[in-house]
Amino acid sequence: MTRPAPTTEPSGLRPVSGHQPAEGGIAARARATADAPYLRDLNPEQREAVETTDGPVLVLAGAGTGKTRALTTRLTHLLTTRKARPGELLAVTFTNKAAREMQARTGDLIGNVVEGMRWLGTFHSIGVKMLRRDAELVGLRSDFSILDTDDQIRLLKQLIVADNIDPKRWPARQLAAFIDRWKNRGMTPDKVPAGEAFAFANGKGAELYGAYQQRLKILNAADFGDLLLESFRLLQENPDLLKSYQERFRYMLVDEYQDTNAVQYLWLKLLAQGHGNICCVGDDDQSIYGWRGADVDNILRFEKDFPGAKVIRLERNYRSSEHILGAASGLIAHNEARLGKTLHTEIDGGDRIAVQGVWDSGEEARQIGEDIEQAQRGGHLLDEIAILVRASFQMREFEERFITLGLPYRVIGGPRFYERLEIRDALAYLKLVVQGDNDLAFERIVNVPKRGLGDAALKILHGFARSARVSLMQAATSLIETDELTARARASLKGFVEDIARWRAMIDTTPHTELAEIILDESGYTAMWQKDKSANAPGRLENLKELVRAMGEYENLAGFLEHVALVMERDSGPDEDKVNLMTLHSAKGLEFDTVFLPGWEEGLFPHQRAMDESGHAGLEEERRLAYVGLTRARKRAKITFAGNRRVHNLWQSAIPSRFLDELPEAHVDVEETSGGYGGLGGFGESRFDRRQDFASSYDTPGWQRARRAAGDGATPSRGPRTIEGELVATEDPAASRHMVGERIFHQKFGYGRIAAADGNKLTIDFEKSGRKKVLDSFVERH
DNA sequence: TGATGCTGCGTTTTT
DNA sequence: CGCAGCATCA
Fold it and tell me: Pick from A484, A482, A480, A486: which is nearest to A499 by CA?
């Protein structure tokens, strides 16, 4: 029987000398690993990533290179070779989905369910776990509740108002964003730089942050940011505790390292100072969450942060065809801040990336709809088709089109199940029953449905609770024995308090799903929506049913509530064959045979705001987003761009995305537009053919042909391509050479004089509307 | 308490 | 333009 070459002790296995002798002896272990069936299907790089167990390791895993396989095999290897017991592995991911997949696939490899991997989970869930164990060290009790963004904002608003700050001028949302950013960077209120604290309410920023943190402790609550920051603080301020964790975690594994933010990095760094066996897996080219605190530099800096680190590149792509990979690689090569990888695929040939220009977003949707129908006739599964958009407003047009065509589709992403109003209300009821002192839950539902407990009654209640230093529920219990409240409010509050108490008494005797139904029913909450005649009321009732159904998967109410804040996801069981519609961001990690990428226009993609706010770094992140989009495709990818797009109900002409120019010609086919636009009625061919309006320096033969057909020879200059201008037919399509100082007429802006010209882009001082940038084809000489 | 009108905003989203 | 959130009025 032929065996793979004796890769027993690749030099990378023990990069650090002076390590303790291997348990069981090197030879014995070598025999064990060479035989291990789980290693057989790995390529040499994956295998190295698995077998380089000790010391810091960075696995740069390109798109589709079998990252998850390497990762789960690594866990399997550590367990099988007994380098660590399940409880000694720390494995962190960003999403619950990724954590579940890691758990399941490791189990598959080992051959049965892995038990005791208690430290496999998201950063947040592991943070919660640490905090619950030692909550008092950060000023919480172990049953602290977890606030979501909505609670957070309500709370901040109270604080802003209490501080006599105008909440309109200084919105709580904005403060929440600041606080989030501070927490992401590992800053407690006292560490906020003075300059930044000033950014909110003239210097009240840090103060409010401090007040908010205090309030959270009083409420025995933590927000999402705290789960990271407070668990970091817990470790940092308690050396003995830190030491015990450092000793516990013999091996650490971090998925999607490019998405880590500063606190996560600091947290990992602390823990890794123990055994030093930290393996981070990621792809700098797929870092697309910079805007919410992720710091690509973490991955770029890895070798500096962890001296002696071994860097392993996974560059064999098993997903995409040659052309798709070639196009994506060519595109991402335009980024400067990257470690650099060269992906290869053995899937030869296939179709080139199709690029097509269309008249407007309507035609784009029609065209893609047609393409999909054609694919479907050819036997293509709709499940294997995805449309990836940059911004969610782009989805509407596709949905409308698909409904007209009767083409089944599903939208992935969108508002989260547990963020819905009715779900949050229902959860507040359940929380209040389980955790009587949860003031936020109390506030939320004490008058939902309406019980006649208005502002006046609540003010008295709040005042009493504050002076007596008790929870709102305790305050209510006392108040109903007095005459502080009006008779009506008192009776109503009494009913409410008694209801909650009655339900609480049922916790141990009633199955929790049944109890939930009783609560929703007897509280009048269900009835409230049944009476509501608005269009979304039936949907809300459906969601409540879904909530109760989801609860059935947990042991009891407390168990359900513990998970719900962190783990609850929308129901998405496998259903019929449907086209997938989602944003590029939510497509990360997924793959499809065929991918449509609409809206590749300057301003939309790359998005103007990303560039305005983050400049070059923003542009590079947009480019990574394009790379993520392309690499989702196994066999076919088609990019479209529209010459006109309606934004905020204004028609804007657009020019093709610079990313199109960055795709290597050899992997691209420019499709000449089919007759799809013929039915536009009034908007005839001549207009469409005037494609030079959004011409680029794109240079494939097909493109040139298309250009020649359009009668344009000039290559407009590069430069910032934010061009606004309403699309209006010009009489003379050849009128494109204008001089500075020339007087012109524009359909929308009237008369003006040219202040500057840059290719076909003119800066004009209009007599009535001031300085504007317009395209030369929209102005006439005068 | 509910209805009505006004203002401001309009990229991506996990936990 | 369309929507959400808020304030104001009846």
Answer: A480
In the 604-623 stretch of chain A, whose C-beta falls under 7 Å of nucleic acid strand B? 607, 609-610, 613
Q: What residue type is assigned to position A245 of the chain?
A: Y
In whole angstroms, give the CA distance from residue A646 to residue A280: 43
Is the CB atom of residue A214 positioned under 7 angstroms from any atom of strand B? no
Residue A610 (CA) to nucleotide B11 (C1'), in angstroms, measures: 8
DSSP bridge pairs for A312 = A59
Query: In which residue are the tokens 């019980």 written?
Result: A451
Separation of alpha carbons A106 and A565, rounded Å: 26
- Measured distance CA(A734)–CA(A747) in Å, rounded: 17
Among positive and negative, which fits the CA dihedral A374, A628, A64, A327? positive
Where does A140-259 have alpha helices with state H? 149-162, 172-184, 194-197, 205-219, 224-237, 239-248
Q: pLDDT at position A673, please?
A: 65
Closest nt by CA–C1' to A582: B12
Closest-CA residue to A205 (of A233, A152, A165, A261): A165
How far, in Å, CA of A707 to CA of A715, rounded? 10
Q: Is the CB of A648 under 7 A from strand C?
A: yes
Looking at per-residue pLDDT, the higher value among A113 and A439 belongs to: A439
Collapsed DSSP state (helix, strand, coil) of residue A30: helix
Give me A490's structure tokens: 């008192």
For residue A383 the two structure tokens come to 């499940």
What is the rounded CA–CA span in Å between residue A642 and residue A357? 6
Q: Which two tokens stand for residue A253?
A: 């594994």
The residue type at A348: D
pLDDT digits (tens, 9 = 90+) for A291-329: 888 999 999 999 999 999 999 999 999 999 999 999 999
Dihedral pair phi/psi, residue A761, rounded to 5°: -110, 125
Taking CA atoms, A286 is separated from A278, A283, A306, A386, A618, in Å, by 21, 5, 22, 19, 13
Q: Is A586 left (phi over 0), alpha (psi -120 to 50) or beta?
A: alpha
Contact indicator for A67, A89 with CB cutoff of 8 Å: no
Phi-psi region of A55 (alpha: psi -120 to 50; beta: other; left: phi over 0): left
> CA A380 from chain center: how many Å?
29
Report if CB A448 to strand B is under 7 Å. no
Phi, psi of A113 (to 5 degrees): -65, 130
Catalytic hit among A213, A286, A367, A513: A286
- pLDDT at residue A14 is higher than 90: no
The residue length of chain A stands at 782
* DSSP string for residues in A567-616: H--------S--EEEEEHHHHTT--EEEEEE---BTBBTTBHHHHHHHHH
Are the C-beta atoms of A426 and A546 separated by less than 8 Å?
A: no
pLDDT in tens, A568-601: 665 555 678 999 999 999 999 999 999 999 999 9
Q: Residue A396 contacts by C-beta under 8 Å, 6 or more apart in sequence?
A: none
| Residue A649: CB less than 7 A from any atom in strand C | yes
As a whole number, the mean pLDDT across chain A is 82
Q: How far is the CA of A513 from the C1' of B2 (A)?
A: 34
> Using CA atoms, how far apart are residues A555 and A771, in angstroms rounded to an integer?
66
Sign of the C-alpha dihedral computed for residues A73, A75, A79 and A82 taken in this order: positive
Q: How far apart are CA A6 and CA A23, in angstroms?
A: 20
Q: Which distant-in-sequence residues (6+ apart) come within 8 Å of A588 by Cβ?
A: A286, A288, A628
Paired with A638 in beta bridges are A354, A596
CA distances from A232 to A126, A136, A508, A610, A668 (A): 11, 14, 36, 30, 48
Q: How many CB atoms lie within 10 A of CB A181?
A: 17
Please name the residue that has the structure tokens 């939902």.
Answer: A448
Crossing angle of the two packed helices A172-184 and A262-272, in degrees rounded to 10:
30
